Amino acid sequence: MQEYSDELIFEELDYIETDLGAISLRRRSEPRLDGLIIYEVKLNDEFLMSSLFVEAEEQLSTLALKRLRMNGHHDQLDVVVGGLGLGYTALTALQDTAVARLRTIDVMQPVINWHRSGVLPVGDVLASESRSELIQGDFFAISTDAKQGFLDEHQVDAVLLDIDHSPSHWLNEHNKSFYSLDSLTAMSRKIKPNGVFALWSNDLPDIHFVEQLKQVFTDCEAHVVAFPNPYSGGESTNSVYVCTVGEQNATSIV
After folding, report:
1. Would the pTM count as exceeding 0.90?
2. Is 146 exposed, middle or buried (0-12, 13-18, 19+ CB in 10 A)?
3. Which pLDDT value is given to residue 248?
4. What mean pLDDT is predicted for residues 144-166?
5. Does residue 222 contact residue 205 with C-beta atoms inside 8 Å?
6. Continuous H helices in the chain
7. Which structural domains are found in the chain, ordered by start?
8. How far apart are CA 79 and CA 53, in angstroms?
9. Least crowded by CB within 10 Å, which of 24, 107, 147, 221?
10. Neighbours of 246 (CB within 10 A)
11. Angle at Cα 46 formed by Cα 43 and Cα 52, nearest 5°?
């Protein structure tokens, strides 16, 4: 439910120095939108996420779960989300009753703490719901570690990734190596046959990246998600890549 205020509000709810820079959470009213309360996350001077624009993050889950059902995965689903942020991707997945286990991995402990304390618009549901687990860790390191699974030694049904701005615009240089054939292949081994890998991007679809995905996965699609932009009076767009894991994938990781 959206929140409004007749008063001008600007609050910095948290500010923490981390190894990756200063991350902050702020809550403010937007007079141009009738006092709508907006939550924003920044890393140093760079905006990471706003509660004003969440449609594509939600579609990351919606499109991935739709593909899973098309592929014959209907219940008791194990889903992993890379990147927590304000929580809209994970929350959309959790609202699907077919999801039995949801593990969200984020490198930033402060972000996890925001959810545990319930200060965000989604409340503390991702921290308190029994099917959901929040883990502090490096998603990219876990995804490519041959001796470590996302949940346990078994493969998961879907991996949903929303960390970097795009496959070619990273939050830090360390993430670059993940968007390679070797790393994508290593991660794919942790997903069940006919499972799904899906990725959010701030940019329009990258044709070269789609071709790279097709070397690892099958049935790869890049969806353009359009949503209203009240500041411009027009539309803005993000992208969601959705791929199926081939049937040749092994039934366990180690």
Report:
1. yes
2. exposed
3. 74
4. 93
5. yes
6. 55-70, 88-94, 109-117, 125-128, 139-144, 181-188, 207-214
7. 10-50 (no CATH), 55-244 (3.40.50.150)
8. 23
9. 147
10. 15
11. 95
